[in-house]
């Protein structure tokens, strides 16, 4: 499943309204959208970004943001 690049250009962090970075799984599929400011990862399920703050994963301090 892929995500349209035009959609990615429009999406922002629902908390700080900042830009998001797309992270891919080892197979190269979109896995989550990461906000580097808030250090939150928003999951992508079936090709659909879940942009709900209560669904976000808090990133550990030592996790690299590629």
UniProtKB/TrEMBL annotation:
One of its GO terms (cellular component) is cytosol. Pfam families: Trm112p (PF03966). InterPro entries: Trm112-like. Belongs to the UPF0434 family. HAMAP family: UPF0434 (MF_01187). This is UPF0434 protein VITFI_CDS1872. It comes from Vitreoscilla filiformis.
């Amino acid at each position: 499943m892929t995500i349209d690049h035009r959609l990615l250009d429009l999406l922002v962090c629902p908390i700080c309204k900042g830009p998001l970075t797309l992270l891919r799984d080892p197979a190269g599929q979109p896995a989550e959208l990461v906000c580097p400011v808030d250090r939150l990862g928003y999951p992508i399920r079936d090709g659909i970004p879940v942009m709900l703050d209560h669904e976000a994963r808090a990133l550990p301090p030592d996790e690299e943001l590629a």
